[in-house]
Design brief:
By secondary structure, the chain is α+β, with helices and mostly antiparallel strands. The chain contains four helices and eleven strands. Strand 10 and strand 11 form a beta hairpin.
Amino acid sequence: MTCKKDIPSAASDAGGSSSPDEPRKIEDVLAFEGFYMGPPVGVSMWPMLRNRHDVMMVVPAEGELRRYDVALYCRGEKYVLHRVVGHYGNGSEKGYVICGDNCVMLEYIPREDVLGILRGFYRDGRHIDCETSRGYHAYSKLWVALFSVRKMCKGANAAVRRAGKRVLVACGLRKRDAASEAGRK
């Protein structure tokens, strides 16, 4: 899930903010409050977390993350919440192999870029604890185990959509888009 770089806060000066009306960064909230709660923004962790619907609870990352943990890290100016699917180590550089539940691209994130870890979330008013919920653990393991199947299905879905667009254009039921027109010249 991708979040905006800054979050609004009603709390007074914490973590270097100059005024109570100025947005605070999530890492500042984690350092000052010890946790961050807010809605996920985006669809990369669907179906587990729904865009702007559920509420996630993130705590500061301490020590080594395990496979199936969900890490919060920064990618450029955005926050990203994705699942750890493995570890990597290139000499002195060590980190995590990470992928969103609704994604098929693997990312390699250095340990020091991880800000926090998902400890739980609220879905339709019900609390799901990421450490103790057996259902959550079963979902995590199944979702990671099905990665190659999910990747194949997403690729097949994209191919069917492309073929369908070509058929509609050939039949005159759809106009050619600007990108394909530019590629034909």
